[in-house]
Protein kinase domain-containing protein (Trichoglossum hirsutum), 243 residues
Amino acid sequence: MGVSKAVSFHLVPDDKAWDSFPVPTQLRRFSDITLIKYIRVLGRGNHAVVFEVSVGLKRYALKLFEPFNAEVIHRRLSHRFNISVKEVEMLCDPFQRECQAYSRIGGNHQVAVPCYGYNTFPTQHKDFSRFVKGLPLRGLVKELIPDSVPSFTLQQVGKMEADFKTLLEMGIVMFNVKPDKYGGGRVRDLDESFTAPNWIPIILKKDLRVPVAQFNDMIENAQKHKSEDDTRDKPAFSAPSVI
């Protein structure tokens, strides 16, 4: 049974339900940045680099985002839509989009890997050659997922389907759904999501049914890779990066 058959939130671009959601509240600030020590790079993606870091005796995953050039996107949109540079930043910036999604999720740690807050972080680390040298970067501090934990197992698929529907009903739509957006069966990457009432997917005529199809394809592909002698508690698909 596909996820789309049981979704109660109607995913059509002009759905009035999309506008009925309140604007997400601000995510809380992570305050202990002076104590952070970089340990190693966990993964790299289109928008960010993720590090394993320590704060005192605790270990976290720190996701640092590339600077976002809102003016470039604004030039593409402003000739068609009445939108300001600030609006572009709030609606399109991957960092803002992930903050908005986590703000809406709140303390529901069964659906997504916990996020403990945001802040700006210094960029003296040697891995920052792709960034503007010395420019503080915005980042999110999340729960660290051990290397031994796969993206998901076939045993977790039922829960993942329920969680995916929960996100949709919250007004959070993930795009580009794939295994490396999951860790231990929970969502860990939301920088390509849109959180209602963000109207960018509507004006760009994004088909909000596509993520549902992507999710179903991801599960079907994992099941195809399952050999006959696999047990249900073996990984269905394991992705190396943590973005």
Residues 4-14, 237-243 have pLDDT under 50 and may be disordered. The CA atoms of residues 11 and 209 lie 6 Å apart. The longest helix spans residues 210-224. The domain at 3-226 is CATH 3.30.200.20 (Phosphorylase Kinase; domain 1).
